Amino acid sequence: MHTVWKGAISFGLVHIPVKMHSATSDNDIHFRTLHKDCSTPISHNKYCSRCDVQVDQADIVKGYEYERSKFVLFSDEEI
Questions:
Q1: Which of 20, 50, 53, 62 could be cross-linked to 40 through a Cys-Cys bond (beta carbons 3.0 to 4.6 Å apart)?
Q2: CA distances to 11, 17, 19 from 8, in Å
């Protein structure tokens, strides 16, 4: 990691070296693949467990889970 600032703190005869580093965090948005009719997450085999059906690609939409089992849906144009 790159050092942003280097310096020292001194108290009488005590000398403490200090280095300051920049901090980063993950700010990416992660979407879930959902069934268009009921907003349930789609498993890898594209099967909706709530409706008990295989889901076609045309019936799959993207959504952001803001609370457990609650989603905001997005179209391809919005993304």
A1: 50
A2: 10, 4, 8
d(CA 74, CA 24): 28
Give a yes or no: residue 23 inside a domain.
no
Number of structural domains found in the chain: 1
Q: How far apart are the first and last CA of the chain?
A: 33
Residue 50 belongs to domain spanning: 32-74
Q: What is the mean pLDDT of each run of 10 residues along the chain (79 residues)?
A: 86 92 79 90 84 88 91 88
Give the whole-angstrom CA distance, residue 14 versus residue 27: 40
3-state helix, strand, coil in the chain (%, to 5): 5, 50, 45
Q: Is the pTM of this model over 0.90?
A: no
